[in-house]
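ok so I'm stuck.
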Amino acid sequence: MNQRRCFLWAACGIGGAALAGLAGLAAQRSRALFNNCQAQLPSDPAVDHLIRSAWAGVDSSQFLDCHVHLVGTGDSGSGIEVNPDMESLFHPMQYAQRLFYLNAGCVHDAPGRIDDSYVERLQNLVDGLQPGARLLLFAFDRFHTAAGRPDPERSSFYTPNAYAQAVARRHPRYFWWAASIHPYREDCVEALALAVEGGARAVKWLPPAMGIDPSSARCDRFYAALARHGLPLISHAGEEKAVHGGDQEDLGNPLLLRRALEHGLRVVVAHCASLGSAVDLDRGANGPRVACFDLFARMMGEARYESCCSPTFRHSRSGTAASRCCVC
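replied:
not stuck anymore, here's the structure
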């Protein structure tokens, strides 16, 4: 496989009465709309053959699903926070998204233990893989202002680093974890050092939802620290559909990640920037809008980013990885 092409694997006013009616209708149609949450794959020779074929030639001990969001409601004392808009019928889109997310995680019928049920469901899914396979669980930082202050009202949800670390530590056969640290935070460098000490394998950003401009000089001290620790940056790029809050879609432009690459970082452009369009900044601030995927593909084809795309997320405290950059 060409290492430059390593794609890592990887979810108005409406009256209250009308909204209640819609909720009732959704409940009536739940069998057609919602996941049945089966614990195991069906016992079928054709399915068994397909699964064996998919794993042929794959070393499962080196397999990592590196895009797994760790979510919940905070009912376990995890520290998870969910924006109240996602629980309000006055915000029907976000309300509906929350219901679908709960169902997708098979925790919709687990009131009072949603956090724990979600982790159990992830373990159930890993049990369906080959021995040695793991999931990389994402923490998720809050939206922060340009001054580096958290803004809960513009944050869709928050999953603390400490919780992601604790889950991975309790279940090392199933999980590794990735920290999420906003680079504008005054304590971002210290928070990164603490995460590395706790075994974090990467850092996860979602710039439009967190209010991060990856091209800003405010990120430089964090990039320098990330390079010293040798951790990759996993950053969403392209249009964001699933997470509301920041509503700064321009921050999903993959070209903004050049600044991270110039610091010698390994950058995983999540989803390969496959949705939406963005300004072609290589042709100036007022350049034409181009498909985000095309901008991503351009960076993938540039010789200066040809170095190594590490197949694993082991980090090196010696800092040797900091001398090489790549986009993948």
